[in-house]
Specification:
It is a single chain. 66% of the residues lie in helices and 9% in strands. It is α/β, with parallel strands linked by helices and 650 residues long. The strands form two sheets. The chain has a six-stranded mixed sheet, with helices on both faces. A four-stranded antiparallel sheet has the order 2-1-4-5, with helices on one face. Helix 6 runs antiparallel to helix 11. The longest helix is centred in the middle third of the chain and has 55 residues. The structure holds adenosine-5'-triphosphate. Adenosine-5'-triphosphate (ATP) binds next to strand 1 and helix 12. Adenosine-5'-triphosphate binds next to strand 1 and helix 12.
């Protein structure tokens, strides 16, 4: 997307409002069920984790109980042997608990990695099935964020959130049981402080949730800016329009919003901890006070060791409570991540195979449009009642003003979009009934914007046919008129094409893409002629390449040059999404309609700027020059002149 594509930035298209809405956590049973469905395949490992957590949590608590024994039976009881045994036992239990923790950590990480692996693959496969509409309407930064940081977030949900919930709940329950066994009065007193946590936690949870949403949107925007401006073509546009400063300011703005959000988010967390820690310290003091009073004033059986155990256990209780309350915040955050990911999973795959899709043995590449209506967006009709038929082995040239719908017609054949009304038939079968893989395999498109992967020419060619032999590749390159160029390179087919093929000229790229399509050997060839002015040598090389190809196979050409138009068997003239004229050049040019106008304003000019002229160059030049003058004089005479031109062996 060009850097000028501001409209797509998340802030301007109301992304904030969506995030604000999302800030109301909607944790439904259906969502939970769905989240847990990802854990299901790993239930065995999860059970093992659960057992490890239970054992290590209980073990980690026992040294607290031993502290009482160390004090009462060891130190106060003056028994050195018991003292040493309790100390060694306490040490051994702590060590064991930590060792089990390591094993549990390994299994947990293993599960988390496997779940994110599953999710990433599922997301990638799902995105690949999404229609062209999805990619043209969604911000690339947003797609990448969901694929990368959102899914990575899920990993931390499993390794931290789920784990913390389990281990803290177990520790809390076991500690409470132990405390009640020692002294119910002190236990009740200790837990009385707990409600004081709930209020600040809830408030902090809400604030952090909202800030996380905003930070995520801001992050998407930053990713979007980077994608737009750091791409090769984006940078080129920035440089050529001198927009460096503007782009820098846009980036700086988003960056500064991001740091403010991050600081606010961190601080919301800090305040939350200040309150919690203060409250946590009140508990032990109260226990010493009430425990002391019970011993001193009420002759309780409690020993100093018991009170120490209670304080130690209370310490162990507050931590899990603290953590569990924190987890509520993390939990909401995690659910937001899952919701964002599921949102993508739930986007329906607009274009997919019919359940009873047909895979014919072969096809001739015949195409027929029957009363086709199409709109990208509901309120704006693009194609209106388009009907035409392209017979096997023949070729059609589609011409028309820019934006008239030529590429749109082409897009409907390999089902990049589906029609709203009417039908598109390929080999006599509605494309919606055909197997998608078969359909797309049978069609080769050489588009205006040639896309080459960053790699060698060979790798780019092999993309069309993995098992192509060296001979086949050379043959295709020769046919595409690019072999001379390849041979002239030191590394031949192994020459690197650069990022998106930018180390090559436009003409070279297009000829490589023609060779690639030839290797694919499709039944139908679609050639979207470049409107951009290539130099006349490049033009003639491309023309020489495509002429024989068109001769021998079914083809559709979006044409901007007379020579291409003349090579076709029939011409369709499209205007405002309708076929307004059709026929042969010599007839159309006489009509004095859209085609004549296009001819006078476009084809003729492009031709004169450097078109393939073949043997009759000099002669046609003269004719063209003459006809130029006559075109100025009157449409009628221009038409006659050009119809004469049409007979030239162009
Ligand atoms: P050109 O010769 O300039 O390539 P074209 O005749 O091939 O033009 P199309 O690309 O088919 O024209 O576009 C027809 C109309 O559809 C245009 O008005 C364009 O703005 C609109 N359009 C094209 N692609 C989309 C899209 N993905 N979403 C919405 N509108 C679109």
């Amino acid at each position: 997307m060009p850097p000028g594509g501001r409209m797509g930035s998340p802030f301007q298209r109301g992304f904030m409002t969506e995030e604000e809405k999302a800030s109301q956590p909607k944790i439904t049973p259906a969502l939970l069920k769905r989240v847990f469905s990802y854990l299901k395949p790993y239930w065995r490992q999860l059970t093992l984790v659960l057992i490890c957590i239970a054992i290590s949590s209980a073990m980690s608590l026992y040294p607290s109980v031993l502290t009482g024994k160390i004090l009462d039976e060891g130190i106060i009881g003056r028994n050195l042997k018991l003292l040493i045994i309790f100390i060694v036992a306490s040490f051994g239990l702590t060590l064991m608990s930590n060792l089990i923790g390591v094993i549990e950590g390994y299994i947990n990480t293993w599960i988390a990695q496997h779940i994110t692996y599953d999710m990433r693959n599922q997301m990638f496969a799902h995105l690949q099935r999404m229609s062209q509409r999805f990619f043209t309407t969604n911000n690339q930064g947003d797609i990448i964020t969901r694929m990368t940081s959102d899914i990575s977030g899920v990993e931390s949900v499993i390794t931290n959130t789920f784990r913390n919930i389990l281990s803290n709940s177990i520790t809390l329950i076991v500690a409470l049981i132990m405390m009640f066994q020692k002294s119910w009065v002190l236990a009740v007193l200790g837990i009385c402080v707990i409600p004081l946590f709930v209020i600040p936690t809830r408030k902090a949870g809400k604030t952090r949730w909202k800030l996380t949403g905003e930070a995520q949107a801001c992050n998407d925007e930053i990713n979007g800016i980077l994608n737009e401006t750091m791409s090769v073509s984006g940078q080129l546009l920035v440089k050529l329009f001198g927009k460096e400063e503007q782009e820098f300011n846009r980036y700086k703005d988003a960056n500064s919003r991001m740091i403010k959000l991050n600081i606010r988010e961190r601080m919301a967390g800090r305040w939350f901890f200040v309150v919690l820690n203060t409250v946590t310290n009140i508990g032990p003091m109260l226990l010493y006070l009430v425990g002391g009073i019970l011993i001193m004033k009420y002759n309780s059986n409690l020993t100093p060791g018991d009170i120490t155990v209670m304080v130690a256990l209370l310490g162990r209780t507050y931590m899990p409570v603290n953590n569990l309350l924190n987890i509520q915040v993390d939990w909401m955050r995690s659910m937001a991540l899952f919701t964002r990911i599921f949102e993508y999973f739930d986007m329906p795959v607009e274009i997919q195979n019919a359940p009873d899709a047909i895979t014919p043995e072969s096809t001739t590449g015949e195409v027929e449009f029957r009363g086709v209506d199409f709109a990208y967006e509901p309120e704006r009709q693009i194609l209106k009642n388009v009907s035409f038929r392209l017979e096997a082995g023949r070729s059609i040239a589609i011409v028309g003003p820019s934006g008239s719908g030529k590429s749109t017609i082409i897009n409907l054949i390999p089902r990049l979009y589906d029609v709203q009304e009417g039908e598109v038939l390929f080999g006599g079968i509605d494309v919606r009934q055909l197997d998608l893989t078969f359909l797309r395999k049978s069609i080769g498109v050489v588009s205006q914007e040639t896309y080459l992967f960053n790699g060698t020419i060979r790798e780019n060619l092999l993309y069309a046919k993995e098992d192509a032999t060296e001979e086949e590749m050379i043959e295709a390159c020769k046919k595409a008129n690019i072999y001379d160029f390849i041979e002239s390179q030191e590394t031949g087919l192994d020459t690197m094409v650069g990022n998106r093929g930018l180390k090559l000229s436009g003409g070279e790229k297009q000829r490589i893409s023609i060779a690639r399509v030839l290797l694919k050997n499709p039944a139908l060839l679609i050639f979207d002629e470049a409107t951009s002015a290539l130099d006349s040598i490049s033009e003639s090389k491309i023309q020489e390449a495509i002429d024989p190809i068109i001769e021998e196979r079914t083809s559709i050409l979006i044409a901007h040059r007379l020579s291409t138009i003349l090579a076709a068997d029939e011409i369709l003239v499209v205007k405002d999404g309708e076929i307004v004229e059709r026929g042969q050049h010599k007839d159309l040019v006489k009509l004095g309609g859209v085609y004549t106008e296009l001819y006078n304003t476009q084809f003729k000019k492009v031709d004169e700027d450097g078109l393939v002229r073949g043997a009759a160059d000099a002669e046609s030049d003269e004719t063209a020059a003459r006809s130029d003058e006559s075109a100025v004089q009157s449409d009628e005479s221009a038409a006659q002149e050009f119809s004469a031109n049409a007979d030239l062996p162009l």
